C-alpha cells in the first residue's frame, strides 16, 4: 500500500514537472514568435528604407549626369563668343584697324587678359565635364617622358622669367619611355607646374626631376612657395576646392586643375603624392608604371 502511494506521488510530481516545463516552453515559444514578428517588421522597414535609398541614388545619378551635361554644353557655348572676342582684340592690337593711342592699347591689353582668364575657366569646366563623362577615353602611345617635360617647361619660360624665378630640370642619362596619353599627361604636368609658379614668390627656385626604379617612374615638382598645411591635403584634389594661402586671391582659379590631373593619373594606373610645409614649399610627385 505504501509502495503504491509512493508511486502515485512520484507520478504526480512528474506530471507537475512536465506541466511546468510545457508552460515554460509555451512562454518561450510565444516570446520567440514575438521576436520573429518584430524582426519581420524591422526587415520590412529596412526594405522600405533600402528602396527609398535606391530611388534617391538613381535620382542623384540622373541629376549629376544632367549637371555634367549642362556644364559641358554651357562651357562650349560660352567658349565660342569668348574666342571671337579674343580674335577681335588681337586684330585691334596688331594694328588692323586705325592706329591706337597708348591708353587704348592699355585698355585692350587689360581686356585681353580678362578674356584669357575667362577662356581658361571655360577650358577647365570643359575638361572636367569630359573626364566625368562615361565617354572619356585615353589614347595611349609610347613616349619619352623627358622630352615631354622639356616641352612643358619651355612653354612656361616667359612666365618664369616674369616672376624672376629659376627652374632646374634633372633627367636621367637614358630615355624614360612610358605608355601614356601624351596630350593628357602633358596637361597634367602643365597644371602642376603652373601651380608651382603661381604659388612661389618671385626670385625663388623650382625643381623638376625624373627618375625610374622598380618598374615605376617618378616625376617630382618641387617649389619654394607658400606651402600647404597637412590638414588641407584632402582638399587639393576635390572638385571646385581651393586652399586659402597668401597668394590664392591674387592667383585666382577654379579649383579644378588638380582634380582633373588626379583623375588622369589614376586612369594611367598611377598616383600623385604631396609633401609640403607652410612657408617652406611643396613637392608633388607623379608616379606612373614604367610599362
**CATH homologous superfamily assignment of the largest domain:** Histidine kinase-like ATPase, C-terminal domain
Structural class: alpha+beta
Strand order of the largest sheet: 2-4-5-7-6
Q: Name the CATH class of the largest domain.
A: Alpha Beta
- CATH-defined topology of the largest domain: Heat Shock Protein 90
Number of structurally distinct domains: 2
Low-confidence parts lasting 5 or more residues at pLDDT below 50? none
Let me know the average pLDDT: 84
Could you tell me the strand content as a percent range? 15-25%
Instruction: Please report the distance between the alpha carbons of the first and last residues.
Output: 101 Å
Global outline: elongated
Instruction: Tally the beta strands.
Output: 7
Order of helices and strands: HHEHHEEHEEHHEE
CATH architectural label of the largest domain: 2-Layer Sandwich
Put simply, the count of helices is 7
Radius of gyration: 34 Å
